[in-house]
Design brief:
The chain has about 150 residues and is of the alpha/beta class. It is built from five helices and five strands. Strand 1, helix 1 and strand 2 form a beta-alpha-beta unit.
């Protein structure tokens, strides 16, 4: 691995696999050293909100506006924020809405990321074949390198 600055995106969802991916992304960023500091973007992609219609008298609020959101957010981003702070790595935590694979790839293009780090899905072979997984979709279609952490 070269020791040049990199823009590293890591997909976060609060699962053990995403926590491993977060730790690996921070480790990758810390290798570049202080002369060429790397940046880490920790991204949580929440499901798209349903479109509202005139029959929705009480539309659903986004998850980020629901009671208890800050506590959930703190738990989900805890590992990556702690690891980045300890390693002295710049971190930007983002919460976006949409299809996880599509949004990760779109954001990677916008931020000019060099690598996307994702945890493995943990699905069985049959489920992965039928349903697909975020890691598989990102690995096949991302605009940059993809590192899948098991």
């Amino acid at each position: 691995m070269l020791t040049l600055s990199k823009k590293i995106m890591v997909a976060i969802d609060g699962s053990p696999q995403s926590d491993k991916a977060a730790e690996e992304a921070v480790r990758m960023a810390s290798v570049s050293g202080s002369k060429f500091p790397s940046e880490v973007y920790a991204v949580l992609v929440l499901p798209s909100m349903k479109s509202q219609s005139f029959t929705d008298f009480f539309p659903n609020k986004p998850a980020t506006e629901m009671p208890g959101w800050e506590e959930k957010r703190t738990r989900i981003f805890y590992v990556v924020e702690k690891a980045a702070k300890e390693a002295g790595v710049p971190l930007e935590a983002l919460v976006i809405y949409g299809d996880p694979a599509e949004e990760l790839m779109l954001l990677a293009r916008e931020k000019h990321c060099d690598v996307i780090v994702v945890g493995s899905s943990g699905k069985g072979r049959v489920k992965r074949t039928v349903l697909g997984s975020v890691s598989t979709k990102v690995a096949l279609h991302a605009p940059c390198s993809v590192y899948i952490v098991r």
